[in-house]
Design a protein that fits this description.
By secondary structure, the chain is of the alpha+beta class. The protein has 15 helices and 30 strands. Helix content is about 25%, strand content about 30%.
Length: about 600
Amino acid sequence: MALYEVLYHSFSMSVSHTRNFCIIAHIDHGKTTLSDRLLEFTGTIAKRDQQDQLLDSMDLERERGITIKSHPVTMQYQARNGESYLLNLMDTPGHVDFTYEVSRSLAACEGALLIIDAAQGVEAQTLANVHLALQQGLTVIPVINKIDLPNADLPNVKKQMEEILAIPGEEAIEASAKAGIGIEEILEAIVARIPAPPEGDGTLRALVFDSLFDIYRGVVGYIRIFSGNLKPGQQVRLMSTNQSYETKEVGIFIPKMSATNSMKAGDVGYFIGNIKTTAEMKIGDTLTDARHPAAAPLPGFKEVQPMVYSGIYPINTADLEPLKMAMSKLQLNDAAFVFQPESSVALGFGFRCGFLGLLHMEIIQERLRREYNMDIIATYPSVVYEVEKTNGEMLFVDNPANLPDMSVIKEIREPIVKCVVMVPNENIGDIMQIMMEKRGVVESTESVDTRRVMITATLPLNEILVDFHDKIKSVTRGYGSMDYEPAGYRAEKLVKLEMLVNGDPVDAFSSIVHRDKAESRGRALATKLKEVIPVQLYQVAIQATIGGKIVARESVSAMRKNVIAKCYGGDITRKRKLLEKQKEGKKRMKAIGSVNIPQEAFIQVLRTG
């Protein structure tokens, strides 16, 4: 019997033989490799279809070794006790930018496999993911992966588990996903330790934990059913928008989409209705029966708000429409990515884009360049500031150009993050120095083991956007790791830094910075602009200003034309007369001329940050 038919018939299995679980881990601890081994061991994929990183469908995911999009899959496992079980695995993104998606995937499970690298031990993100899983009340099964590495240190990893995660070391399963060691023990632990899903009260309630756009069938929603049944032809309603749709198809992932006659409580699969955009189907929403709706939605739903904003402009102005089309296509599969048109005096027409975080921004830009052949320039990333005016009005500002005059501002609040950094003992001084430079406040330091320290600090999100992670990696020679979570807003002495070229403000270089750092940033920008602005026939002043006060200045010297070349011999007064005449002409030219800064100059400055 084909696997599809086996799984199709197994849908008549009782809920007690279903197990829903996910895999959580720090980046590069072997999460995707383990999911490949589980699929092979359970026979979910045929030998001819086997490949590494099977659940990572994007080239970008394969190249970077990261999971960007969640991928569920249904497996059937014949346990040692002779019983047959249906295992639903929800592969989750591993990066901090996608924390909300991870939390929704965890909410769709009863258990989680926690993967810890036998050589690297507990990392910052391991800790964050365990807290997320425990908040959702999941059963955590620890797996120490890569035990076949020559530098694997099992006793130390077990000690870290007990001291940092409060998980008994003897509960850990020793495995090597690459070598296929311990895979059966992991499957047996899933069956034995993870509880079966509850059957619910019979009213349809399903959690939407992800979605994607299919060009032929519209939006495909990834769902976990908590109670009731779902069948094709059934009228359903999304509780956050109150919109009703007709169910066209339901099914499971094995690992490709395969239609079934119905889905019941405990099942994980997909549903297709007549939904046109992913914006209509929000992650974390509850799907219920339109005729007999549930009294209350499933808990935990929230609207995903962008954390980081950046302007994206086409280098060639003729590419504006193709860029808009490319962004619309990306948005079909990623509702968290938002954009709206904006124009800049310097860069022309483009788009103001909102992202979940810096990795999300990097991925979108890379996909625009790679999948749609777009030649783009991105402005310096900024965050959303809360601005309280003197009249009590509250504004949310993501673009420095929209900041009102400082005279009408009571205070500006910036987003703060709580950051956990794990570093080797010898680097603690350097890391604290970097945190101080980034206006961070160290809350606590804790020894993880004899070799590493965990530093907890609060930092402004704006300060860690660009190079904080890179600095940690370079200072610790790759051994440091970090994780952060939003920690609200805090009032700070923030000002708008503007760059004037020949007296005219250049909006592309405007930024909201801390008062103490404004002068040094203004000086650095002025120096950089001096290098890239072409020489004119008159002197060009480059000034950094804060609220009308000049804090830094550089000058591009005038091009000197040899006007006295034709004046040979004669009195010195003749030469002086010509030079005075030239000076007069340059003054007049400066009064009516404006400096034309080439786009290459903007690109150069923005690329160097």
